[in-house]
Amino acid sequence: MRPIEVEICLGTTCFVMGASALQNLQLPESLRAKVKISYVRCLHLCKNMDKFRKAPYARIDGEVIDEAAPEKIIQNITQKIKDIAHATN
Amino acid sequence: MRQIEIQKLKREILVYLIKAFYSADFAEQVRLIPYDMRPKGSAVPFRCCIHKERAVLRSRTLAGLGLAIEDDNERTELSIYAAQSLQRTKNAEHPLTVLGSACQGCAESFIHITDLCQNCVAKSCINSCKFGAITATRGRAVINNAQCKKCCLCIKACPYQAIVKTIVPCENACPTGAIAKDTNGLARIDTAKCIACGHCLVVCPFGAIHNKSQLIDVLKKIKTRQKVIALIAPALLGQMPCTAGQLHSALQKIGFAQVYEVAQGAETTARVEAKDLRQRLQKGLAFMTTSCCAAYNELARKHLPEIKPFVSDTKTPLAYTAAIARRANPEAVNVFISPCLAKYPEVNQDSNVDHILTFEEIGALLVALNIEPAELPEENFAHVSAREARGFPLSGGVAKSVLAAWDGAPQEVTPAFINGLNKASLAELRAYAKQGRCARGNLLEIMCCLGGCANGPAVLNTEKAATAQIEKYASEAESLQSLR
Ligand code: FES
């Protein structure tokens, strides 16, 4: 199975608004092999006044996650893995 | 653990404030901040209703404008305050201000007998209490808080651990007893006792404690084309995911005409401190403490005069760097970029430094001005700082620097560390001062923040990531030893 791609934005807005805490994100053991995490530059999701407040942003298999926090990211990954398992069954 | 929700909220306000500053109508845009952040019909994430949310945001904006929230008469519009803050020419004396309406949310500290009480026969709690505050009602221990003196003996006596003391986080975090709830339940800072370590600001779960920002003062000078120089604390090099050269470029984009690494002055601090230690040991003194932690210097001044004879006379890295910058550019405005709030009083006392901005305020500037340091070209610093000077902001870093500058046998220096000031380490320091010796070593490095300045109250990065980044940056430079 192809890994789930997690892109975490470390652009200025995301970093200052909380992505600093997403560096070295530790996933639960059970997810680690199924996920590929990368840290990326500004995803340009933050560049207007309302949107900067929803930072930090992450992208999981292309889906944008706002106000990204470890729990939120892990939940989303878990759901995606479940969905994939379901679809291939 | 830092409280992200609160940090975000405070930074958001700063971003709005900066955008307002660069808008066509600063005062009006500032007045609108609470409404822009909580427009009609928006969700109410924290308080009872949107009006209270806006009122709290209004108060927080005052701190961003550099004002004391306590002095607010509530009738003056934010726009008036904004206009006033543009006019001021003096820095506030004390860095901290408390937002009372946020503070009311948390209960005073008291002793509470929980439902875990097993109605036991021994009633050790009642026997332990010297004030008769605990009685038995239908077999169950009941405490009369009016009589309780919070001595906590009952907590120790209870075999079921059924008695707890609720804590007030700010009071608990304050090493010097400078913050306490008054009779109205509002936290008040006793400025005579406060050393501005900022521990209360970090722990308050309501985000009630703010620093009075000097953003407006600095931006005003940048905007009116004065030459504004940034003196960056070494800890800043671990704060953004970019290289030192890119950070330099980013600061220039903000509008700083020149950037000095305070690590430059740290080299002098290390050398002078090594000499100072040598002289003291020769005179027979048992130990010396470092002198670069601003909160510690305030502590010595306000609470520990007995330690004064043991504090090195060496000036801080900021003092040396600011003197260099001033000599080279007498007409310029010098702004210290700080991870720490205890530097406010130092900046006020040092005629070579005009203002202080925190790392958080720099972060907000980068957001508001759409600056992406990691995408900028590298700009070198005029002075290449030494390895140990770059490591100054980490616990152990100052002692390492002194050792590198030490010209005798290394084993003559035995470093010891106070890594994080709290009530226990304060007692330890007091004991050393009283006895005139320190069993742990002859060079006592003191940093009031756990982990060092890289984990100060106004930082952007996590301690772990910041430490790694600073260590890497330090490893790329020559040692002070080889530069000697
Ligand atoms: S900084 Fe993350 S989207 Fe722009």
From TrEMBL, chain A:
Q: Which InterPro entries match?
A: Thioredoxin-like_sf (IPR036249)
From what superkingdom does this record's organism come? Answer: Bacteria
List the SUPFAM superfamilies hit by this protein, alphabetically. Answer: Thioredoxin-like
* Name this polypeptide is given: Thioredoxin
From what organism does this protein derive? Answer: Candidatus Termititenax persephonae
Q: Which gene encodes it?
A: trxA
Automatic annotation (TrEMBL), chain B:
Q: Which GO terms describe its molecular function?
A: 4 iron, 4 sulfur cluster binding; metal ion binding
Q: Which regions form coiled coils?
A: none
Sequence ranges assigned to domain 4Fe-4S ferredoxin-type in this UniProt record: 139-168, 185-214
Record bears the keyword Iron-sulfur: yes
Q: InterPro entries, per this entry? A: 4Fe4S_Fe-S-bd (IPR017896), 4Fe4S_Fe_S_CS (IPR017900), Fe_hydrogenase (IPR009016), Fe_hydrogenase_lsu_C (IPR004108), LdpA_Fe-S-bd (IPR057431), Mono_FeFe_hydrog (IPR027631), RnfB_subfamily (IPR050294)
> Keywords in UniProt for this one?
4Fe-4S, Electron transport, Iron, Iron-sulfur, Metal-binding, Transport
Q: Which superkingdom is the protein from?
A: Bacteria
Classification via PANTHER family: DIMETHYLSULFOXIDE REDUCTASE CHAIN B (PTHR42859:SF10), OXIDOREDUCTASE (PTHR42859)
Write the protein's name: Periplasmic Fe-hydrogenase
